[in-house]
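Possible race condition, two jobs.
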Amino acid sequence: MRQVFSESSVTSVANRNRRVWVFDLDNTLHDADTYIFPVMNQAMTQYIMDHLQLDEEDAHTLRRHYWHIYGATLKGLTRHHGVDPNHFLSETHQFPELPQMVIQRKRLRHWLQQLPGRKVVFTNAPQHYAYRVLYLLGVDDLFEEVFSVESSRFHPKPSVRGFARMLRSIKAKGSDCVMLEDSLPALRTAKRIGMKTVWISRRLHKPNYVHYRIPSVLALTHVRL
């Protein structure tokens, strides 16, 4: 029996195949809060102490202040203190024990393989760290591009300039993309430029610029996009 497809169903399939899934890395594809972020935050605080001659309390406060204002401590340090971004990233993302720090997520590889469309990673982390994490998760070969903070020329999320560079790099429009991310400021920018937005969070409140809220990327199978 010949199967007949309507014009709308053919268009729907074409749209799904053209779709670009834009994944954040830390606390989206894997859990960074448990082991990685505490070490990373301490390393950043220590870097500020060493290079700006601040005590620990003031360095911690400054790190948090820039993170809240810019979405990334790096942005504040380069803008206001002339810090070399490459040196900062190298010093704060070493993690010799990273294999023991990355928490495996069962079914992640299988789930990503079943997801139709292109897949990229868009992260504020440095490229060497991002590739190491993806390799340890066993999914590094499933992404056509890892767009790191170096790729954005140090305009990290939620900067519109960083998003624009990412879209040019992957040759896509905002309307082609679905962004999965744990950071609300980044999702706010994503919505502004036309992306569908998926917030990875267990919080109940959902801002109006978030299309869907799910507790884990694996729960995306329950969302109709």
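Job #2 (started ~2 s after job #1):
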Amino acid sequence: MANEQANSNGEDQAQQQFVIQKIFCKDISFETPNSPQIFTEKWEPELKVDLHTAVNPLADNVFEVVLTVTATVKTEDKTAFLAEVQQAGIFNVSGFEKEQMDHMLGSYCPNLLFPYVREVISELVNKGGFPQLILQPVNFDAVYAQHLQQRQAQKNSDESGADAVH
């Protein structure tokens, strides 16, 4: 029986597949609304980084994952620059249970895309005439877990509201 269980687990793992088909920039935006005046002012930057992921099924077991990163730098109340990059990938993912699949698409894939986003934003900022900007690493497992908690809280809130109506 132990052999059967080992074989079964081995077969399940053999059927699991994760393949990167393509990684590409879907959209790039760089704005310097207060240039050239911003270059003459004291440089005391305040960085705000927003992250967003989206998953789009393309075919059976084929998904587009889009990681959008928006970096906004202000000095005092003026926007120095805004850089936004949508980095995307097409992934073949199959043989995983739903929970594992959701984690792959919601955490693992964005984690693979992030270094590409970091490089593009760094180059945009440099070409825009600003000091180097290197985005810090992101713990996408923690971001994904937070997303799941928010979704569960929303679901509980919706259920509570529905119960109150009855």
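The two ends are 51 Å apart (CA to CA).
Logs attached separately.
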